[in-house]
Design brief:
This protein is α/β, with parallel strands linked by helices and 342 residues long. It folds into 2 domains: 9-142 and 318-341, Rossmann fold, CATH 3.40.50.2000; 147-299, Glycogen Phosphorylase B (Rossmann fold), CATH 3.40.50.2000. Helix content is 37%, strand content 18%. The chain has 12 helices and 13 strands. The protein has helices spanning 19-30, 45-53, 64-74, 88-97, 177-186, 206-213, 228-233, 244-251, 262-265, 287-299, 301-313, 319-341, and strands at residues 9-14, 35-41, 59-61, 78-82, 100-104, 116-119, 133-135, 164-168, 193-198, 219-223, 236-239, 255-259, 277-281. Strands 3-2-1-4-5-6-7 form a 7-stranded parallel β-sheet, with helices on both faces. The radius of gyration is 21 Å and the shape is elongated.
Length: 342
Amino acid sequence: MDKPFQRITILFYVGHSGYPLSRCIQLAKFLASHHILFLVNQKHTSVVESLRLKGIEPLLFSKHSDLESLLEDVQADVLITDGLDTDLEESKTFKKVIPTTIHFDDFGEGGKEASRVIQTLYREEREALPSNYVTGHSGFIVPDELEPYAQLGLRPSQALPLPHIVVAFTEEDEDNLSYRTLRHLLHLQIPLAVTVLLHSNYRHKRDELKMMALGRKQTRIIETDDFLQSISECDMVICDARYTPYYVAVIGKPCIVIAQNEKEGLHGFPREHNGFVHLGLGRKLKQSHLQQAVMEFILHHNRSGKAVKKQLSLKLSSNNQNMLRLIEKIIQEGSSEVTRNA
């Protein structure tokens, strides 16, 4: 006989806008039969603003002492964190108040205290991890807005007069790889259509990029936080090594990956065995290496096709139901543990 449904309180603690927030919102939809709350540190203003635009009013705090009292007031059954590298003190506070804690992509020491840590941004060198860690691409939750674009790479692309490359470095683009990549591409001795997507958090002078594109009819600079349409319509993507390759692997596009920093450079997903060309750290990137990688995809269609097939063979579109089952299992284990200790 099935157990009666038990409605619990699930608290999402989000530390970063962009994909971590999208993942939490998607999970909240899956778990909507429960009481859902969002928690944000006041300093993460972009997260607060994004939630409010979606009609969600988060619980706010500013100091660790405020956090502990807030958690005691809420009395959540489950805490799900994303976009945060927690420390031990913080995680012990969670554990003291909340029976089950699930951390997504937590590279802090606090992960050791969590019920489970799910690392989507796993390292290429698989070091020994505690038993509560789950690593791999299964942690990528496909947001609703990505689903319509799934496997578009299998469809014949529209015949365009020129190969179309989209350059997409997320968020602040700390080393201005958008500028460096465009400069290298414009030195190629073949005609190309290039679209550079700039996030609203892009921290560099936009006019410099726009001046570089000036007078080149097939070069566009687009300011947008929604890059899905552009990626779905292009022939090739050049992007960061964080979450963008996961989006690409759902759609299926030849993709060159450039790490924005040392931490990104360690990520194990966007590698050749999964259908990506990884060129290493952006600030060490040589023009000849990027140009060679671009030409390989343009001249050798078989290589492009094989890369797309590798990406799509990962079947990331099926992650959602599998991850939901895992989360429900973790919640059930936590509930059983509480019952035994009662």
